[in-house]
Amino acid sequence: MGPADWNGLSRQQAIQEMLHCCGSRRWAEAMADRRPHGAIEDLLSTADSIWLGLQDEDWLEAFHCHPRIGESNSAYASERALKLSTQEQSEAQRASEDERLALAAGNLDYEGFYGFRFIVCASGRSASEILANLRSRLNRERRIELMEAAEQQRQITQLRIKRWLER
User: Fold this and answer.
1) Cis before residue 36, ω within 30 degrees of 0?
2) Are 78 and 38 within 8 A, CB to CB?
3) Which pLDDT score, from 0 to 100, does residue 127 have?
4) CA pseudo-torsion sign 137, 143, 144, 146
5) What is the pLDDT of residue 78?
6) How many CA atoms does the CB half-sphere of 53 hold within 13 Å?
7) Where does residue 115 fall: left (phi above 0), alpha (psi -120 to 50 degrees), or beta otherwise?
8) Are 51 and 22 in contact (CB under 8 A)?
9) Are 54 and 151 in contact (CB under 8 A)?
10) Which pTM was predicted?
11) Does residue 20 carry a catalytic annotation?
12) What is the 3-state secondary structure (H, E, C) of 60-111?
């Protein structure tokens, strides 16, 4: 599917397609409402522009749709989004038992401290790299971490849009 195909979908269908890329409903609605998009670059630029203009609660909604690092399930994500997440975490899926336990504990510590899910663009990163990243981001000021998580989500969304267009 290219931008032209997506431009031709109904608003509701276009929103559903975007929700596989990012779980923020407001983002997906804005993407659909800003059609038509020309080149892929235009679509990616619009995605960034909308994402950066959203409110914290929109970002948190998107974060909530991700499975925790090391897990493959979230009650709030579509089946296609979960499949994408599994692909993105493929390197981390090779974690040792100790790394899996450390990631599970780190996820809980992070969520307990910040009140939202740990988000990292996991593509190509090993479990040990992700665990080091998680630990380095723990205990920072909440606003700084929220901004970092939003940046990680932006990167994930860009990758997912590109994959979506390739299918």
Assistant:
1) yes
2) no
3) 87
4) positive
5) 60
6) 11
7) left
8) yes
9) no
10) 0.88
11) no
12) HHHHHCCCCCCCCCCCCCCHHHHHHHHHHCCCHHHCCHHHHHHHHHHHHHHH
- The SS3 of residue 167 is coil
Both structure tokens of 91: 């390197």
156, two tokens: 């994930």
Taking residue 118's Cβ as centre, other Cβ atoms within 10 Å add up to: 25
Six-digit token string for 44 = 């990616």
Q: Which letter does DSSP use for residue 147 in this model?
A: H
Amino acid in position 18 = M
One pLDDT digit (tens) per residue for the chain, 167 residues: 677 888 999 999 999 999 989 999 999 999 999 999 888 899 999 999 999 999 999 999 999 988 887 665 555 556 665 566 556 665 666 778 898 899 999 999 999 999 999 999 988 888 899 999 999 999 999 999 999 999 999 999 999 999 888 76
Token pair belonging to 89: 């975490």
Q: What DSSP state is assigned to residue 5? A: H
**H or E stretch covering 52:** helix 40-52
Go through the domains of the chain in sequence order and give each one's CATH number.
Answer: 3-166 (1.10.3330.10)
Residue type present at position 145: E
